[in-house]
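Quick one: structure tokens for this chain, please?
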Amino acid sequence: MLRKDPVVRILFVLFIIGYLLVATAESLFAQDAKTQSAVATQVIAREKASAEAWQKKDKSFFMDFFLDDSTYFGPMSPYLEINPKENFLPKMDKMFEMFKMEEFQMYNPRVQVYGDTAILTYNSSVMANFAGQPMNYTGKMTVVYVKHNGVWKVAHGHESMNPQGR
């Protein structure tokens, strides 16, 4: 019957083509989800590594952490921090001594991936010593990462502290 009826043959060919298209689309979506998951894992690991590097006073880590033109809004400054290689890295030793992070926890991380750009948002809990005084706080963080020469680097960060008691 398949050989004799051209309508049946056309329908059969269309069915096979449709099946192949659906199978290919499912494979691409699964591959995209795996890629997104892999990027999320890398970005979250990079962010956690930055907290560990701060605790260890590892200035060399931060030399490759920021893009040259990255920006940052910090929780204790009303100003936009710019040009980390000029304005942040030279002061790091002093900053390590002023702000000693004792414990860092990341909660509810979410990574949105757009090609070579990833946006990490999360809640944080920090136990620290600031200028000799204990400082414990929770906060919110948004960090924009860009893949540059195969490495995820910070293009922008924004950290805000929650009001006390929350």
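Strands lie at 66-73, 80-82, 99-114, 117-130, 133-148, 151-161.
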